[in-house]
Amino acid sequence: MVSSSVLGFPRIGPKREIKFAVESYWGNKSSAEDLQKVAAEIRKQSWTNVKSKGVDYIPSGEFSLYDHVLDHSAAFNVIPSRYQNLGLSALDVYFAMGRGRQADGVDVPASEMKKWFDSNYHFVVPEFSGTTDFKLVYNKALNEYKEAKEAGINTRPVVLGPISFLVLGKPSRSAQAGFQPISLLPKLLPLYEQLLKELKEAGAEWVQVDEPILVLDKAADLAAEFKQAYTKLAAVAPKILLATYFGRLESNVKFVAELPIAALHIDLDREPGQLEEVANAIKDTKIVLSLGLVSGRNIWKNDFNRSIDLGRKAIDILGEDRVIVATSSSLLHTPVTLASETKLTDEQKDWFSFALEKASEVATIAAVLSNSQDAEVGKALEANIQSIKKRRDFEKNSDDTVRKRVAAITPDDLNRKSPFPARAAAQKALGLPKFPTTTIGSFPQTKEIRQARLKLGKKELTQEEYDEFIKKEIQEVVKFQEDVGLDLLVHGEPERNDMVQYFGELLNGFCFTQHGWVQSYGSRYVRPPIVVSDVSRSAPMTVKWSSYAQSITKQPMKGMLTGPVTILNWSFPRVDVSREVQSKQLALALRDEVVDLEAADIKAIQVDEPAIREGLPLRRKDWDAYLTWAVDSFRLATAGVQDKTQTHSHFCYSDFNDIFPSIQRLDADVISIEASKSDMKLLSAFQEFGYKNYIGPGVYDIHSPRVPSEPEIKDRIKDMLTLISPDYLFVNPDCGLKTRQWKETKESLKNVVEAARWARKEWP
Ligand code: MET
Ligand SMILES: [Zn+2]
């Protein structure tokens, strides 16, 4: 019989209970016990719900109050010294590592966060050194396994595997040069043995051990480590399901097939093509294959017929008893349930499956593959076939104009009229001084702004009243910038709820949920728009506010747009059309906006692409294809203007070295990047690759409320000038100011302007 499984469930709770409970605890409005009580309720509810859908393997232990990687660090005592001996409870140390702590004389910054593979989820990066003192402080997987058992639910505990845990970490500041976290494996393994042994003793039959790094190129060098680890662990652990997701195993399958594991999970949603190779590689072993058929990364209903075909292929090779139907990854990246949505049309609702609906899907597909004669299963299959057919019919009614326009894109559409030097000469008309100062776009999104937006939504404010309010905000932001002495101004983006959602709501082709929250990091959740059909623009989206802002100042005003790749990467994309096509549709819509802004006399236009890098494929051999269409999309969006119009782009990351040629190929007149963490290595790459356009490496970090001093900024500029010509340097913060307060914003920008004035004297 084919069984079914879910790899992990969202933590937030159907009504965002966890977010609110955690934030209330942070705000001293509730106790640790209150928080743990809410958490236990949510866990129980999730287990019960998943079980009620007929799923055989129910996950436990993957729940988290902040981040599952941080949970491992805390449980194994991987706690950097700056968080120790502060007199904090274990829970507060945990949160201090996640988000920093500034209270009662304690002042520690947060640990670094990184994107979880190619998702928009961020994990807290563990820090290791030769002196890392591993201890199994508590056994979270065991505790939650027992908790579920007491509630009458037998679960399959989930643990992040030792190799991924180490490889995802980084050397701590105190580590010796050249130290590699993976060298700690022999020291770490005994603790994993203990953890897994305790699970077995408590009665767990299976354990899911996640090793997502197996889909990365670098895992190929770790065959020996995998062998060492899993030989040890398998000897004491419950039966191990080794879980991989988000990509292909490729040649790693060779050594994985030799590990003493009981089951292997692969992602067939992202990489259906790997089924045969993997199934054949494990054919002569006893390893069970868990087929990740139901997407853990997207919200579209599974196409049962397609999954059944893949399932049958696996059964042909391995037999029914060696096949499990599963979600492709944890459902962490999907919202909890479609049942909460009251505003989607019935037609739209019929297209989607959120986490709970996906649990039903794996159960039904497994039942069909087991030749179940159950009438309910037959009905569910029939209903799915109908839903998929309706969606396909809808897709056929596409917007032909948009598709034709994408098909008609020519290489010329991607090129500015002249090369950069000629454009730079024409842009002298902007009248910017040397070392022009500017900001990245948003100014503080105050409580008042959020309230006004809410009131507009509830119709407590009329559109006219709201527009008046926004005008006032813009006036204040413009006036402040003039007073403080910034050169290239922005309108401050007060009208935007979010840099992606704002555009999604104005473009055709998107739909929105009310409760479709997905964890981004900690207690921060986003509600990604869903691309449902061809994307187009019916009317200008930003011209009104940008022109208004320009009308009240003599200084140049920078128009502000979110780029095509970022809009796409921070939305749930369609699955019937390639991401490339969706990105180009977005680019064409934005191109029209850019041209309209120019026609409205906006002389500088910024198109933000902070998400270009996170969309980079996990395997290097897939990079070129992605970067080609990603960069082309940006060029398509921006190349429609005259030489005299200055295009800007912004990226809030600094990992440039490996994608440098693509950054160059964007051919933006000005780019601003995150380099505030004094990462001069980054700037040397700009020198090395001979980057010639304008560049504004952030002179301070806006993610912290700290005000950078004037001497500090001057030092930064001085450092930058060792690598970048004074003729090409812009002076700006490293990202938008929306999360900051006005107080520190004012003080910081004043220092920025002073430092730029000083530079003009030093390098006349
Ligand atoms: C995450 S990048 C943000 C760019 C945007 N223009 C802002 O200033 O907020
Ligand atoms: Zn940014």
Automatic annotation (TrEMBL):
Cited Pfam families: Meth_synt_1 (PF08267), Meth_synt_2 (PF01717)
Residues binding L-homocysteine, per UniProt: 440-442, 608
UniProt-annotated binding residues for L-methionine: 440-442, 493, 608
Binding site for Zn(2+): 650, 652, 674, 735
This enzyme's EC code(s): 2.1.1.14
Metabolic or biological pathway, per its Swiss-Prot or TrEMBL entry: Amino-acid biosynthesis; L-methionine biosynthesis via de novo pathway; L-methionine from L-homocysteine (MetE route): step 1/1
GO terms of molecular function: 5-methyltetrahydropteroyltriglutamate-homocysteine S-methyltransferase activity; zinc ion binding
Enzyme class of the recorded protein, top EC level: transferase
List of catalytic residues: 703
Cofactor(s) of this protein: Zn(2+)
Protein name as annotated: 5-methyltetrahydropteroyltriglutamate--homocysteine S-methyltransferase
Organism in which the protein naturally occurs: Tulasnella calospora MUT 4182
